[in-house]
Specification:
With 204 residues, this protein is mostly beta strands. The protein has an eight-stranded antiparallel beta barrel with strand order 1-2-3-4-5-6-8-10.
Amino acid sequence: MRRFMVLPMTALLVLAVAAPVAAGPNVSNQSGTGESIYGEWYDGTTYGYVFLGEDSFYGGFGDIYQESGEWVLCEGEEFYGFEGTRTWGYAYDVTIEMTRRLESGTATGTVELFTETVDECNGIYGGDPGFVSGTLVVEVSGAGPLASFRGTGSYQIPSEFNGHSSYRGKERQATGSVNAADSISATFDWAYMSQVTWTDHVNN
């Protein structure tokens, strides 16, 4: 069975919390809530994923990637190279809404996408990639049992730094779709959605 446990946002943001505190003696207590959606899609020639998160303390963010093409044995060589197109980008002003038991969820925001043509066998990586900006919309529906998780973490330097965090939340496998600036439009082959509550304490 494939696990779909999401790394809690507090783990991803611990450096952002610790860095400004390290500048001088301080005590910091922070807490917040977060939601995230992840989805991926694939067939014989296309693979892609999108990850979106919204945190009450840090705001909304995300990234998206898709490649369409094939991996071929380069002529006269002993390695494979990708031939096709790659599109990647970043989302901002992301807003995520979910029902209490994660029966459904939606995410909207603005996305900036870059696309390049790639021929790795011949050393072609597209030069200056094409650019497009537009609306990002992701919709998901729960497709599995509701699961819960919790945990704690700490980081200490004796007499210098003491930080600890805790988190708890719930998650659910899902189905759904993504449309990004009308340049990427896909139905998920696998997805999940998650909600988390986190706290951080830092003393140095």
